[in-house]
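Hey, can you fold this?
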Amino acid sequence: MFHGFSSNRDEAFGSFVQMSRKLNHHGIAAVAFDYGCHGESDGEFIDFTFTQELRESMKLVSFVESLDFVDENRLALLGMSLGGVAASMTAGKLPQDIRALCMWSPAAVFVDEIVKQHVLQGRSTERVARSGYFDFNSLKLSPAFFDDLKNIHIYQTAAQYSGPVAIIHGDADSIAPIAYSEKYQRIYRQGANLVEVPGATHAWNSVPVKTMLLEETLRFFSKTLLADDRID
């Protein structure tokens, strides 16, 4: 389970905890973790780059495959926001290792925003050159983070994956517009199932939309990972 930018292994409002319990109840193990420079992992946030996240994602797949309780032939990825982007690119880099891919509100917008528009969530990134960092909700982002994104090609890498893909995205998401999930749909030759959730924001912050998010995810993984796809 790949958490989002500046988040941690529980995800917002415990979404990954809730999802893990649902999956466990149906016989699917879940592994969550804090990326480096996030949560309880080592490193300061100012040292974080997306390339580091991708590198860690690849190593995490190898680690999970080595666990005794894991069937390496039935390994799936779930990613939220920027973690969804990382999941899509990891699947593209390891297409033979990943059985299924699910993304929640993938934030593929961040490269366009930063590299082309020079903004991050509506705020100019030009101040980085003056102050030496970008103040992201009291967390410092370094100039290296922004320079790194010039070499990130999200869809080109993601398109190398040919397995089942599910994308769940709210139509009221102002942080990661749903148009970027629609582009994911177009680049996957095998197709991708995009579930558009009315009224859902990036935070999935109401009971009805959170319920739909969790149930749709459970349905997808039950179908792709279990021999018997019936949900009790």
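Oh, and this one too while you're at it.
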Amino acid sequence: MTAIVIIVVLVVLGIIYASLYNGLIRARTYTQESWSQIDVQLKRRNDLIPNLVETVKGYGHYEQSTLEKITSLRSQLMGIPSDDHQKAMEVSNQLSDTLKSILAISEAYPDLKANEEYSKLMEELSNTENKIAYSRQLYNSSAASLNMKLQTFPSNMVANLHHFTPADYLQVPEEEKSAPKVSFNN
């Protein structure tokens, strides 16, 4: 009778352990997959940039430095190691800010603004930027879920045994946290 109780207890403990371990694996996989979604959107944006640069080149001879900066940041982003998420997001933020200046260029060149190719590219770029923002939120949610499992009992015991590491959150640059200064003086 005691042997049966011991076997049942061991089986139950084994099931609990396997369940906790599988939950940790699932959380880590979701975190990795959500980073992959960011990566996909960054690649999509990088694929759009050469077409956008070529479209804008013919209109703005005076904006050459903006186009060079976009090309440089794109190259820099492509050269960042895949596991350096924070650096990828820093360069991505700089690229997003620089791409916004392309919109300002279009204001100075009405022919560019009316160009159908430019309009399509800007719409795709805008959609991609929205997808990047959503993917960042998904990544941070997945990271929070994983980190919570790594810190709460009893999954933290299993995590420590198998050397699970916490996921870093993607941070918003300080300059983007402050409210923009608005003036209503005309």
